[in-house]
TrEMBL record:
SUPFAM superfamilies membership: FMN-binding split barrel
Protein name: Flavin reductase like domain-containing protein
Family the entry assigns: Belongs to the flavoredoxin family.
PANTHER family listed in its UniProt record: FLAVIN REDUCTASE LIKE DOMAIN-CONTAINING PROTEIN (PTHR33798:SF5), FLAVOPROTEIN OXYGENASE (PTHR33798)
Region listing for Disordered, in residue ranges: 188-210
Flavin reductase like domain ranges (all copies): 21-178
Source organism per UniProt: Anaerobacillus arseniciselenatis
InterPro entries registered for this protein in UniProt: Flavin_Rdtase-like_dom, Split_barrel_FMN-bd
Length: 210
């Protein structure tokens, strides 16, 4: 037997729990952005994915604060038009999690938790040195979605990747070695997942015509 659950009868929190327990594992975007004073903000987001490869576009959904205002990451990206997405892996996930605390805008999570900043190649926003893969992005579109009327529930950020920065030993013949990267993904609640057993299934050949 399978139950039916009507999302319209659930609270926001209940719908959130259903989604994060069903849409998984989810990749994590560890994002750096910069405000007008030059302070670098860093925060993880697991409502994140690829949109298209032509041009290379990625999307990040940044939920609004309880009072309806935009979070620092969304506000900085919309104003500054640039940001960097870092892949979260086994070596940095503990510090990434620490950056999710509610730091005030004038405090940089990067220095507070012990990460190191370095200059990016094609955007003005600095990158996290400890990350093995960095996607330097320029803002393509920013949309407000969800909620009701004039009170959206998230800022939906679409960024174009203008530079891939990858550690040498991860890159071979145009592909990333996932085992060496050791990425970490999000599950429900406070749970994360490491890269487990992998397997390949070839795509089926196109049907033949008689």
């Amino acid at each position: 037997m399978k139950m039916n659950i009507d999302p319209s009868k659930l609270t926001r929190t209940e719908n959130y729990q259903m989604l994060i327990g069903s849409v998984l594992p989810r990749p994590i975007a560890f994002v750096t952005s910069q405000n007008e004073e030059g302070i670098v903000n860093a925060a993880p987001f697991s409502f994140y994915n690829v949109i298209t490869a032509n041009p290379p576009l990625i999307s990040i959904s940044v939920g609004r604060k309880p009072d309806g205002s935009s979070k620092d990451t969304a506000r900085n990206i919309i104003k500054g038009k640039e940001f960097v997405v870092h892949v979260v892996d086994e070596s940095n996930v503990e510090l990434v999690n620490e950056t999710s605390a509610d730091f005030p805008p004038e405090v940089s999570e990067v220095t507070e938790v012990g990460f190191t900043l370095e200059k990016s190649e094609k955007v003005s926003v600095p990158s996290i040195k400890e990350a093995k893969i960095k996607l330097e992005c320029k803002l393509s579109q920013a949309l407000t979605l969800g909620g009701t009327g004039d009170e959206p529930s998230c800022d939906f950020i679409i960024g174009e990747v203008v530079n891939y920065r990858v550690e040498d030993d991860l890159y071979l013949e145009g592909k990333i070695d996932a085992e060496k990267l050791a990425p970490v993904s999000r599950l429900g609640g406070s749970d994360y997942e490491k890269l487990g057993e992998t397997f390949s299934i070839p795509r089926p050949a196109p049907p033949t015509k008689d």
